[in-house]
Write a structure and sequence with these properties.
Helix content: under 10%
Number of strands: 13
Mean pLDDT: 83
Low-confidence stretches: none
Distance between the termini: 69 Å
Shape: elongated
Order of helices and strands: EEHEEEEEEEEHEEEH
Radius of gyration: 24 Å
């Protein structure tokens, strides 16, 4: 069967839990902001479906259990149809701020992931709304077994320069008072 048509797929929502990482970057009286240089989302979609698909993807950060809609990132994806029901079409997307590190064979999709993650959310909600491209010809084979498989990898590469410094306060317990006096007089210092 060939022809053009418009069909919307039920929206898909996935949640990426960043709670442990977010908790490590905040605490009593402080909150860290991060500048990730090459945060990226690698997405791979494999299908034998003979239909072109357009999708709107929205990444929504959550802070304190509430959606940060004003910081949400939106992007569009286009999936090419497979040429045959017997052969899978694999489409790979590199969703990031910049093309640095984009592997060969991936389609680059611009998205402000660095801005999205500057104040580390406790979780990210990924919403995907997809449907057929009504302007493109579809090919469907009655009785065929159609498959659609998707996998993603979210990466936050970290790089620390020589000026990187982390200061911990009030992390030592049950230290004798004399040690505090010696440290404050400059006679002892802790390095590590």
């Amino acid at each position: 069967l060939t022809g053009k048509g418009e069909y919307k797929v039920d929206p898909v929502t996935e949640t990426v839990d960043l709670g442990d990482f977010a908790d490590a970057l905040s605490g009593e009286g402080f909150e860290a902001e991060l500048d990730f240089y090459r945060a990226n989302l690698a997405l791979e979609v494999e299908t034998n479906l003979g239909v072109a698909v357009n999708a709107d993807m929205k990444l929504i950060p959550y802070y304190g259990g509430k959606a940060g809609e004003s910081k949400a990132v939106k992007t569009k994806l286009a999936l090419e149809p497979a040429t045959s029901v017997d052969q899978n079409n694999v489409t790979r997307y590199w969703i990031a701020d910049r093309t640095d590190g984009c592997p060969e064979g991936y389609k680059f999709v611009q998205a402000d992931l660095v801005g999205l993650l500057k104040s580390m959310p406790e979780k990210l909600e990924v919403r995907l709304e997809a449907g057929t491209d009504p302007s493109r010809e579809c090919v469907l084979v009655p009785g065929a077994d159609y498959k659609l498989k998707a996998a993603y990898r979210f990466a936050l590469p970290l790089e620390f320069g020589e000026d990187f410094c982390v200061t911990f306060k009030h992390t030592m317990e049950d230290v004798p008072a004399i040690v505090g006096q010696l440290v404050s007089n400059g006679k002892i210092r802790f390095v590590g």
